[in-house]
């Protein structure tokens, strides 16, 4: 049986990152093995930092590794939505996982532009993690 592969877009928000990791951990899957690729897009990265140095990415990776989930980290520059979609296609991901925003006063979940672009641009299933009410 093949591995269930998840590509998760991780921004700088630790709460989003934690929620993405928890969603991946809790995801029911026919396959006993899950693999998660965490992808972080740098807006601009003059110092050449790697995504594994970003606190939100480390938080998500540590949580996944505690649950023995095979995790790898990738960084990209440029459009984050394109990076997430391209990575999902290259990795033949089963699922894209991405963080949502707060709810609006009307109770609708607000999607950031990256989340919206991924939902509209991907041919693969996309799961948007909820955000706790503060």
UniProtKB/TrEMBL annotation:
The organism's place on the tree of life at top rank: Archaea
Matching InterPro entries: Rossmann-like_a/b/a_fold, Universal_stress_UspA, UspA
Residues forming coiled coils: none
CDD domains named in the record: USP-like (cd00293)
Family recorded in the similarity comment: Belongs to the universal stress protein A family.
Domain UspA residues, every copy: 5-129
The protein's name in its UniProt record: UspA domain protein
A Pfam cross-reference name: Usp
